[in-house]
Amino acid sequence: MRTAKDRTAMIVAIVAIILIIIMGVTAGQREGLTKIEEWVGNIISPVQGVFSTGVNALGEGFGSLFNFSKINKENKELKKQLEELQSEVINLRLERDELEELRSLRFTLNQFEEEENYQSMVANVIAKSPSNWFNVFTIDVGTMDGVTKDSIIVAANGLVGKVYEVGGNWAKVVSIIDNNSSVSFQILRDNSIQGIISGSISNELSGYLFDTMADVMIGDKLITSGIGIYPKGILIGEIKGINQSGNQLTKNIEIEPAVNFKRITKVLVMKPTVIE
Amino acid sequence: MKATIIGILLIINLILQSTLFQYFAIFGVLPNTALVLIVSISIFTGKGKGAITGFVAGLLQDIIFGKMVGLNAMIYMLIGYTMGSINEKLYKDNPIVPILLTAASTVAFETINMVFLYLMRYRIELFNVFKNMLIIEVLYNSFLSIFIYLLISKLYKTNRLKKRY
Question: Which residues are CB-neighbours of A221 under 8 A, at least 6 positions away?
Protein backbone atom coordinates (compact mmCIF):
# COMPACT_ATOMS: atom_id res chain seq x y z
CA MET A 1 0.00 0.00 0.00
CA ARG A 2 2.67 2.43 1.00
CA THR A 3 4.84 1.75 -2.03
CA ALA A 4 1.82 2.07 -4.35
CA LYS A 5 0.97 5.43 -2.86
CA ASP A 6 4.50 6.63 -3.26
CA ARG A 7 4.59 5.45 -6.84
CA THR A 8 1.59 7.58 -7.90
CA ALA A 9 3.07 10.61 -6.19
CA MET A 10 6.41 9.97 -7.86
CA ILE A 11 4.85 9.65 -11.32
CA VAL A 12 2.86 12.85 -10.84
CA ALA A 13 5.96 14.71 -9.67
CA ILE A 14 8.07 13.45 -12.59
CA VAL A 15 5.39 14.31 -15.15
CA ALA A 16 5.03 17.76 -13.58
CA ILE A 17 8.76 18.38 -13.92
CA ILE A 18 8.73 17.16 -17.54
CA LEU A 19 5.80 19.49 -18.26
CA ILE A 20 7.67 22.44 -16.77
CA ILE A 21 10.60 21.68 -19.06
CA ILE A 22 8.26 21.43 -22.08
CA MET A 23 6.73 24.73 -21.03
CA GLY A 24 10.13 26.36 -21.02
CA VAL A 25 10.93 25.02 -24.47
CA THR A 26 7.60 25.96 -26.04
CA ALA A 27 7.16 29.36 -24.38
CA GLY A 28 9.50 31.21 -26.69
CA GLN A 29 9.11 31.84 -30.37
CA ARG A 30 8.89 28.52 -32.15
CA GLU A 31 9.37 27.81 -35.82
CA GLY A 32 6.48 25.40 -36.12
CA LEU A 33 4.20 23.01 -34.33
CA THR A 34 5.10 19.42 -33.51
CA LYS A 35 3.34 16.64 -35.41
CA ILE A 36 1.16 15.73 -32.41
CA GLU A 37 -0.12 19.26 -31.94
CA GLU A 38 -0.88 19.64 -35.63
CA TRP A 39 -2.69 16.33 -35.67
CA VAL A 40 -4.86 17.10 -32.63
CA GLY A 41 -5.72 20.51 -34.04
CA ASN A 42 -6.56 19.13 -37.47
CA ILE A 43 -9.08 16.75 -35.93
CA ILE A 44 -10.73 19.07 -33.43
CA SER A 45 -10.83 22.31 -35.45
CA PRO A 46 -13.41 21.19 -38.05
CA VAL A 47 -15.76 20.02 -35.28
CA GLN A 48 -15.37 23.37 -33.54
CA GLY A 49 -16.00 25.12 -36.85
CA VAL A 50 -19.33 23.35 -37.33
CA PHE A 51 -20.28 24.08 -33.73
CA SER A 52 -19.44 27.74 -33.81
CA THR A 53 -21.31 28.39 -37.08
CA GLY A 54 -24.38 26.83 -35.48
CA VAL A 55 -23.96 28.74 -32.26
CA ASN A 56 -23.32 32.02 -34.04
CA ALA A 57 -26.39 31.62 -36.22
CA LEU A 58 -28.47 30.87 -33.13
CA GLY A 59 -27.03 33.83 -31.26
CA GLU A 60 -27.69 36.22 -34.12
CA GLY A 61 -31.23 34.91 -34.51
CA PHE A 62 -32.00 35.45 -30.85
CA GLY A 63 -30.29 38.82 -30.85
CA SER A 64 -32.32 40.13 -33.78
CA LEU A 65 -35.56 38.92 -32.18
CA PHE A 66 -34.97 41.02 -29.11
CA ASN A 67 -33.37 44.01 -30.77
CA PHE A 68 -35.91 44.73 -33.47
CA SER A 69 -36.48 48.36 -32.54
CA LYS A 70 -32.76 48.87 -32.12
CA ILE A 71 -32.10 47.54 -35.61
CA ASN A 72 -34.69 49.88 -37.05
CA LYS A 73 -33.00 52.83 -35.40
CA GLU A 74 -29.62 51.62 -36.55
CA ASN A 75 -30.93 51.35 -40.08
CA LYS A 76 -31.93 55.00 -40.11
CA GLU A 77 -28.58 56.05 -38.74
CA LEU A 78 -26.76 53.96 -41.32
CA LYS A 79 -28.74 55.52 -44.17
CA LYS A 80 -27.77 58.93 -42.94
CA GLN A 81 -24.16 57.86 -42.67
CA LEU A 82 -24.27 56.44 -46.18
CA GLU A 83 -25.28 59.78 -47.60
CA GLU A 84 -22.45 61.49 -45.79
CA LEU A 85 -19.99 58.89 -46.95
CA GLN A 86 -21.07 59.14 -50.55
CA SER A 87 -20.24 62.81 -50.63
CA GLU A 88 -16.96 62.02 -48.95
CA VAL A 89 -16.16 59.38 -51.57
CA ILE A 90 -16.44 61.96 -54.31
CA ASN A 91 -14.00 64.24 -52.54
CA LEU A 92 -11.62 61.37 -51.94
CA ARG A 93 -11.76 60.33 -55.57
CA LEU A 94 -10.54 63.73 -56.57
CA GLU A 95 -7.75 63.52 -54.05
CA ARG A 96 -6.84 60.03 -55.19
CA ASP A 97 -6.36 61.21 -58.75
CA GLU A 98 -4.03 63.86 -57.47
CA LEU A 99 -2.17 61.32 -55.36
CA GLU A 100 -1.74 58.98 -58.30
CA GLU A 101 -0.34 61.79 -60.34
CA LEU A 102 2.15 62.57 -57.60
CA ARG A 103 3.05 58.89 -57.24
CA SER A 104 3.83 58.57 -60.91
CA LEU A 105 5.94 61.67 -60.59
CA ARG A 106 7.86 60.10 -57.75
CA PHE A 107 8.36 56.97 -59.80
CA THR A 108 9.82 58.97 -62.62
CA LEU A 109 12.09 60.70 -60.18
CA ASN A 110 13.37 57.22 -59.24
CA GLN A 111 12.55 57.24 -55.56
CA PHE A 112 12.67 53.80 -53.98
CA GLU A 113 9.41 51.94 -53.57
CA GLU A 114 8.75 51.18 -49.94
CA GLU A 115 5.36 49.62 -50.51
CA GLU A 116 4.94 46.08 -49.28
CA ASN A 117 2.58 43.71 -50.96
CA TYR A 118 0.05 41.80 -48.97
CA GLN A 119 -2.26 39.09 -50.19
CA SER A 120 -5.47 38.79 -48.26
CA MET A 121 -8.13 36.15 -47.74
CA VAL A 122 -11.23 35.76 -45.63
CA ALA A 123 -11.28 33.37 -42.68
CA ASN A 124 -13.88 32.31 -40.13
CA VAL A 125 -13.21 32.43 -36.43
CA ILE A 126 -13.90 28.90 -35.24
CA ALA A 127 -13.20 28.99 -31.52
CA LYS A 128 -12.03 31.29 -28.77
CA SER A 129 -9.79 30.46 -25.87
CA PRO A 130 -11.65 29.32 -22.75
CA SER A 131 -8.91 30.79 -20.60
CA ASN A 132 -9.44 34.13 -18.91
CA TRP A 133 -5.76 34.97 -19.20
CA PHE A 134 -5.27 35.04 -22.92
CA ASN A 135 -7.20 36.45 -25.79
CA VAL A 136 -6.40 33.78 -28.34
CA PHE A 137 -8.69 32.36 -30.99
CA THR A 138 -8.42 29.90 -33.87
CA ILE A 139 -9.35 30.46 -37.51
CA ASP A 140 -10.20 27.94 -40.23
CA VAL A 141 -7.25 28.52 -42.56
CA GLY A 142 -3.75 27.12 -42.16
CA THR A 143 -0.61 26.13 -44.00
CA MET A 144 -2.73 24.48 -46.71
CA ASP A 145 -4.04 27.92 -47.62
CA GLY A 146 -0.60 29.47 -47.42
CA VAL A 147 -0.94 31.17 -44.05
CA THR A 148 2.39 31.73 -42.36
CA LYS A 149 3.43 32.63 -38.84
CA ASP A 150 3.12 36.38 -38.19
CA SER A 151 0.50 36.93 -40.88
CA ILE A 152 -1.57 39.99 -40.00
CA ILE A 153 -5.23 39.62 -39.03
CA VAL A 154 -7.61 42.51 -39.62
CA ALA A 155 -11.38 42.84 -39.40
CA ALA A 156 -13.52 45.10 -41.55
CA ASN A 157 -12.90 48.09 -39.34
CA GLY A 158 -9.51 47.62 -37.75
CA LEU A 159 -6.53 45.65 -36.56
CA VAL A 160 -7.19 42.36 -34.78
CA GLY A 161 -3.86 40.65 -34.23
CA LYS A 162 -1.33 38.27 -35.72
CA VAL A 163 -0.96 34.57 -36.38
CA TYR A 164 0.95 32.89 -33.57
CA GLU A 165 1.10 29.28 -34.70
CA VAL A 166 -0.14 27.51 -37.82
CA GLY A 167 -1.48 23.99 -38.27
CA GLY A 168 -2.74 22.23 -41.40
CA ASN A 169 -6.24 23.66 -41.61
CA TRP A 170 -6.22 25.97 -38.61
CA ALA A 171 -4.16 28.76 -37.09
CA LYS A 172 -3.87 30.30 -33.65
CA VAL A 173 -4.32 34.06 -33.57
CA VAL A 174 -3.19 36.31 -30.72
CA SER A 175 -5.25 39.48 -30.62
CA ILE A 176 -3.89 42.93 -29.80
CA ILE A 177 -5.86 43.09 -26.55
CA ASP A 178 -4.09 39.96 -25.29
CA ASN A 179 -2.10 40.26 -22.11
CA ASN A 180 1.33 40.19 -23.66
CA SER A 181 0.98 41.80 -27.05
CA SER A 182 2.01 45.30 -27.96
CA VAL A 183 1.66 47.47 -31.05
CA SER A 184 3.41 50.67 -31.97
CA PHE A 185 1.02 53.37 -33.11
CA GLN A 186 0.80 56.88 -34.40
CA ILE A 187 -2.00 59.40 -34.24
CA LEU A 188 -3.92 59.68 -37.50
CA ARG A 189 -4.20 63.47 -37.25
CA ASP A 190 -0.50 64.05 -36.63
CA ASN A 191 1.92 61.28 -37.55
CA SER A 192 4.74 62.72 -35.49
CA ILE A 193 2.99 61.65 -32.29
CA GLN A 194 3.88 58.03 -31.70
CA GLY A 195 3.79 55.50 -28.89
CA ILE A 196 3.16 51.92 -27.88
CA ILE A 197 -0.05 50.26 -26.73
CA SER A 198 -0.47 46.89 -25.08
CA GLY A 199 -3.28 44.66 -23.92
CA SER A 200 -3.99 43.51 -20.40
CA ILE A 201 -5.67 40.77 -18.39
CA SER A 202 -8.91 42.72 -18.27
CA ASN A 203 -8.66 42.94 -22.08
CA GLU A 204 -8.40 46.69 -22.17
CA LEU A 205 -5.97 48.50 -24.41
CA SER A 206 -3.71 51.02 -22.78
CA GLY A 207 -0.45 52.61 -23.77
CA TYR A 208 1.94 55.50 -23.52
CA LEU A 209 3.27 58.22 -25.75
CA PHE A 210 6.96 58.67 -26.49
CA ASP A 211 6.62 62.42 -26.23
CA THR A 212 5.08 63.37 -22.90
CA MET A 213 4.34 66.89 -24.06
CA ALA A 214 2.48 65.70 -27.15
CA ASP A 215 -0.88 67.26 -27.73
CA VAL A 216 -3.51 64.53 -27.89
CA MET A 217 -7.17 64.57 -27.03
CA ILE A 218 -10.01 62.17 -26.41
CA GLY A 219 -11.42 60.90 -29.68
CA ASP A 220 -8.12 60.95 -31.58
CA LYS A 221 -7.83 57.95 -33.88
CA LEU A 222 -4.81 55.66 -33.69
CA ILE A 223 -3.28 53.81 -36.63
CA THR A 224 -0.33 51.43 -36.80
CA SER A 225 2.94 53.20 -37.40
CA GLY A 226 4.69 50.55 -39.46
CA ILE A 227 7.35 49.77 -36.88
CA GLY A 228 7.33 46.07 -36.03
CA ILE A 229 5.43 43.42 -37.94
CA TYR A 230 2.25 45.36 -38.59
CA PRO A 231 2.15 47.35 -41.82
CA LYS A 232 1.54 51.07 -41.64
CA GLY A 233 -1.89 52.62 -41.62
CA ILE A 234 -4.29 50.08 -40.10
CA LEU A 235 -6.87 51.58 -37.75
CA ILE A 236 -6.49 50.45 -34.12
CA GLY A 237 -9.06 52.49 -32.25
CA GLU A 238 -9.56 55.82 -30.61
CA ILE A 239 -8.47 57.41 -27.36
CA LYS A 240 -11.03 57.32 -24.58
CA GLY A 241 -8.93 58.52 -21.67
CA ILE A 242 -5.67 60.35 -20.97
CA ASN A 243 -3.72 60.20 -17.70
CA GLN A 244 -0.83 62.53 -17.19
CA SER A 245 1.27 61.63 -14.18
CA GLY A 246 1.97 64.46 -11.76
CA ASN A 247 5.66 64.76 -12.51
CA GLN A 248 5.09 64.97 -16.29
CA LEU A 249 7.27 61.91 -16.80
CA THR A 250 4.73 59.73 -18.54
CA LYS A 251 1.58 60.23 -20.50
CA ASN A 252 -0.69 57.21 -20.53
CA ILE A 253 -3.71 56.72 -22.73
CA GLU A 254 -6.62 54.32 -22.73
CA ILE A 255 -7.90 53.11 -26.07
CA GLU A 256 -11.28 51.92 -27.26
CA PRO A 257 -10.46 49.34 -29.97
CA ALA A 258 -12.19 49.76 -33.32
CA VAL A 259 -12.99 46.05 -33.47
CA ASN A 260 -15.54 44.46 -31.15
CA PHE A 261 -13.51 41.47 -29.97
CA LYS A 262 -16.45 39.80 -28.29
CA ARG A 263 -18.50 39.50 -31.44
CA ILE A 264 -15.83 38.72 -33.97
CA THR A 265 -16.77 35.97 -36.45
CA LYS A 266 -15.05 36.81 -39.73
CA VAL A 267 -11.55 38.16 -40.24
CA LEU A 268 -9.19 39.00 -43.07
CA VAL A 269 -5.79 37.28 -43.15
CA MET A 270 -3.02 39.30 -44.77
CA LYS A 271 0.05 37.29 -45.63
CA PRO A 272 3.11 39.06 -46.92
CA THR A 273 4.04 37.96 -50.40
CA VAL A 274 7.71 37.47 -51.06
CA ILE A 275 8.91 39.83 -53.75
CA GLU A 276 11.32 38.08 -56.05
CA MET B 1 -15.68 2.07 -20.85
CA LYS B 2 -15.77 4.80 -18.23
CA ALA B 3 -12.47 6.12 -19.52
CA THR B 4 -13.99 6.48 -23.01
CA ILE B 5 -16.99 8.36 -21.63
CA ILE B 6 -14.74 10.70 -19.67
CA GLY B 7 -12.52 11.27 -22.69
CA ILE B 8 -15.51 12.14 -24.88
CA LEU B 9 -16.87 14.35 -22.09
CA LEU B 10 -13.59 16.28 -21.92
CA ILE B 11 -13.50 16.86 -25.69
CA ILE B 12 -17.16 17.94 -25.80
CA ASN B 13 -16.47 20.25 -22.89
CA LEU B 14 -13.54 21.88 -24.67
CA ILE B 15 -15.61 22.42 -27.81
CA LEU B 16 -18.50 23.90 -25.83
CA GLN B 17 -16.16 26.08 -23.79
CA SER B 18 -14.60 27.57 -26.88
CA THR B 19 -17.84 28.15 -28.78
CA LEU B 20 -21.14 28.16 -26.88
CA PHE B 21 -19.93 29.23 -23.44
CA GLN B 22 -18.32 32.32 -24.96
CA TYR B 23 -21.84 33.75 -24.96
CA PHE B 24 -22.22 33.19 -21.22
CA ALA B 25 -19.41 35.37 -19.95
CA ILE B 26 -20.31 37.37 -16.85
CA PHE B 27 -18.52 40.74 -16.76
CA GLY B 28 -16.18 39.33 -19.38
CA VAL B 29 -15.22 36.35 -17.24
CA LEU B 30 -15.65 32.87 -18.65
CA PRO B 31 -16.45 29.89 -16.43
CA ASN B 32 -13.80 27.20 -16.30
CA THR B 33 -15.95 24.12 -16.74
CA ALA B 34 -12.92 21.96 -17.47
CA LEU B 35 -11.67 22.59 -13.94
CA VAL B 36 -15.07 21.82 -12.42
CA LEU B 37 -15.25 18.63 -14.45
CA ILE B 38 -11.81 17.53 -13.29
CA VAL B 39 -12.63 18.22 -9.64
CA SER B 40 -15.89 16.27 -9.85
CA ILE B 41 -14.31 13.32 -11.66
CA SER B 42 -11.35 13.16 -9.26
CA ILE B 43 -13.64 13.11 -6.23
CA PHE B 44 -15.19 9.92 -7.56
CA THR B 45 -12.20 8.17 -9.09
CA GLY B 46 -9.25 8.86 -6.81
CA LYS B 47 -5.85 10.38 -7.27
CA GLY B 48 -4.34 8.29 -10.06
CA LYS B 49 -7.25 8.60 -12.47
CA GLY B 50 -7.86 12.17 -11.33
CA ALA B 51 -4.32 13.09 -12.28
CA ILE B 52 -4.65 11.42 -15.70
CA THR B 53 -7.97 13.18 -16.37
CA GLY B 54 -6.45 16.53 -15.49
CA PHE B 55 -3.40 15.87 -17.63
CA VAL B 56 -5.43 14.95 -20.73
CA ALA B 57 -7.85 17.86 -20.37
CA GLY B 58 -5.05 20.35 -19.81
CA LEU B 59 -2.95 19.06 -22.68
CA LEU B 60 -5.89 19.35 -25.09
CA GLN B 61 -6.51 22.94 -24.05
CA ASP B 62 -2.81 23.76 -24.28
CA ILE B 63 -2.48 22.39 -27.80
CA ILE B 64 -5.51 24.16 -29.22
CA PHE B 65 -5.34 27.50 -27.42
CA GLY B 66 -2.23 27.72 -25.29
CA LYS B 67 0.63 30.06 -25.95
CA MET B 68 2.86 27.39 -24.43
CA VAL B 69 2.37 23.65 -24.01
CA GLY B 70 2.23 22.17 -20.52
CA LEU B 71 0.96 24.92 -18.25
CA ASN B 72 -2.67 23.86 -18.05
CA ALA B 73 -1.76 20.18 -18.23
CA MET B 74 0.47 20.51 -15.17
CA ILE B 75 -1.94 22.53 -13.04
CA TYR B 76 -4.96 20.40 -13.91
CA MET B 77 -2.97 17.26 -13.18
CA LEU B 78 -1.88 18.53 -9.75
CA ILE B 79 -5.44 19.56 -8.91
CA GLY B 80 -6.81 16.21 -10.06
CA TYR B 81 -4.23 14.43 -7.92
CA THR B 82 -4.91 16.52 -4.81
CA MET B 83 -8.68 16.27 -5.12
CA GLY B 84 -8.42 12.54 -5.75
CA SER B 85 -6.21 11.94 -2.75
CA ILE B 86 -8.74 13.43 -0.32
CA ASN B 87 -11.67 11.57 -1.84
CA GLU B 88 -11.76 8.81 0.78
CA LYS B 89 -12.29 11.25 3.61
CA LEU B 90 -15.34 12.86 2.03
CA TYR B 91 -19.02 12.36 2.49
CA LYS B 92 -19.93 12.50 -1.19
CA ASP B 93 -23.67 13.14 -0.97
CA ASN B 94 -23.31 16.51 0.66
CA PRO B 95 -23.77 19.26 -1.99
CA ILE B 96 -21.43 21.57 -0.09
CA VAL B 97 -18.47 19.32 -0.91
CA PRO B 98 -18.18 20.04 -4.65
CA ILE B 99 -18.88 23.75 -4.12
CA LEU B 100 -16.12 24.23 -1.56
CA LEU B 101 -13.62 22.06 -3.42
CA THR B 102 -14.32 23.85 -6.71
CA ALA B 103 -13.88 27.25 -5.08
CA ALA B 104 -10.60 26.16 -3.49
CA SER B 105 -9.25 24.64 -6.69
CA THR B 106 -10.22 27.70 -8.76
CA VAL B 107 -8.17 29.87 -6.42
CA ALA B 108 -5.31 27.35 -6.55
CA PHE B 109 -5.50 27.16 -10.36
CA GLU B 110 -5.35 30.90 -10.85
CA THR B 111 -2.60 31.37 -8.28
CA ILE B 112 -0.30 28.76 -9.81
CA ASN B 113 -1.15 30.12 -13.25
CA MET B 114 -0.20 33.60 -12.15
CA VAL B 115 3.12 32.49 -10.64
CA PHE B 116 4.13 30.67 -13.82
CA LEU B 117 3.03 33.49 -16.10
CA TYR B 118 5.01 35.88 -13.92
CA LEU B 119 8.06 33.65 -14.35
CA MET B 120 7.46 33.72 -18.12
CA ARG B 121 7.66 37.52 -17.90
CA TYR B 122 4.02 38.24 -18.53
CA ARG B 123 2.59 41.45 -17.15
CA ILE B 124 0.54 40.63 -14.07
CA GLU B 125 -1.64 43.31 -12.56
CA LEU B 126 -2.41 41.75 -9.21
CA PHE B 127 -5.21 44.12 -8.29
CA ASN B 128 -6.94 43.70 -11.66
CA VAL B 129 -6.71 39.93 -11.43
CA PHE B 130 -8.62 39.94 -8.17
CA LYS B 131 -11.08 42.63 -9.09
CA ASN B 132 -11.93 41.61 -12.64
CA MET B 133 -11.43 37.91 -12.68
CA LEU B 134 -10.86 35.80 -9.60
CA ILE B 135 -13.90 36.64 -7.47
CA ILE B 136 -16.38 36.29 -10.33
CA GLU B 137 -14.74 33.13 -11.59
CA VAL B 138 -14.83 31.48 -8.14
CA LEU B 139 -18.53 32.26 -7.75
CA TYR B 140 -19.35 31.19 -11.31
CA ASN B 141 -17.43 27.91 -11.10
CA SER B 142 -18.88 27.05 -7.69
CA PHE B 143 -22.37 27.62 -9.00
CA LEU B 144 -21.79 25.42 -12.06
CA SER B 145 -20.14 22.73 -9.95
CA ILE B 146 -23.53 21.82 -8.43
CA PHE B 147 -24.86 20.68 -11.81
CA ILE B 148 -21.67 19.12 -13.14
CA TYR B 149 -21.15 17.22 -9.88
CA LEU B 150 -24.68 15.83 -10.10
CA LEU B 151 -24.03 14.70 -13.69
CA ILE B 152 -20.78 12.97 -12.81
CA SER B 153 -22.20 11.38 -9.68
CA LYS B 154 -24.98 9.85 -11.80
CA LEU B 155 -22.39 8.36 -14.15
CA TYR B 156 -20.53 6.71 -11.28
CA LYS B 157 -23.51 5.61 -9.24
CA THR B 158 -25.17 3.75 -12.09
CA ASN B 159 -21.90 2.03 -12.86
CA ARG B 160 -21.46 1.02 -9.25
CA LEU B 161 -24.93 -0.49 -9.15
CA LYS B 162 -24.30 -2.41 -12.34
CA LYS B 163 -21.21 -3.92 -10.85
CA ARG B 164 -23.04 -5.09 -7.78
CA TYR B 165 -25.69 -7.06 -9.58
Answer: A187, A188, A189, A235, A237, A238
Total Cβ atoms within 10 A of residue B128: 14
The alpha carbon dihedral of A231, A233, A236, A241 has a sign of positive
Q: Which domains does chain B have, with CATH numbers?
A: 2-16+27-157 (1.10.1760)
Residue at A227: amino acid letter: I
Helix or strand holding residue A253 (H, E): strand A251-257
Q: What is the C-alpha separation between A222 and A188, in angstroms, rounded?
A: 6
Q: How far is A53 from chain B (nearest CA, A)?
A: 9
Contacts of B64 in chain A (CB under 8 A): 40-41, 44-45, 127, 138, 172
| Cβ atoms of A8 and B48 closer than 8 Å | yes
DSSP conformation class of B132: I
Q: How crowded is the C-beta side of A120, counted as CA atoms within 13 Å?
A: 11
Full-model pTM:
0.77
Q: Which helix (H) or strand (E) holds A119?
A: strand A118-128
d(CA A143, CA A147): 5
Mutation target to probe the A interface, by most A beta carbons within 10 A, among B11, B13, B17, B18 is B18
Nearest CA-CA distance, residue B3 and chain A, Å: 18
Residues A238 and A183: their CA atoms lie apart, in Å, by: 14
E-only strand ranges, A167-250: 171-175, 182-187, 194-198, 205-209, 221-224, 235-244
Are A135 and A174 in contact by the 8 Å Cβ rule? The answer is yes
Residue pair A162/A151 in contact (Cβ under 8 Å)? The answer is yes
Per-residue pLDDT of chain B (165 residues; tens, 9 = 90+): 778 888 888 888 888 888 888 778 788 788 888 899 998 888 888 888 888 888 988 888 888 887 788 888 889 998 988 888 887 777 777 778 888 888 989 999 888 888 888 887 777 777 777 777 888 888 888 888 888 888 888 887 765 555 554
Instruction: Compare CB distances from B63 to A27, A41, A133 and report the shortest one's residue.
Output: A41
- DSSP bridge pairs for A162: A152, A174
C-beta of residue A194 within 8 angstroms of C-beta of residue A210: yes
What is the C-alpha to C-alpha distance for residues A187 and A223, in angstroms, rounded to an integer?
Answer: 6
CATH architecture of A33-66+118-276: Beta Barrel (2.40)
Burial of residue A143 (number of CB atoms within 10 Å: 0-12, 13-18, 19+) = middle
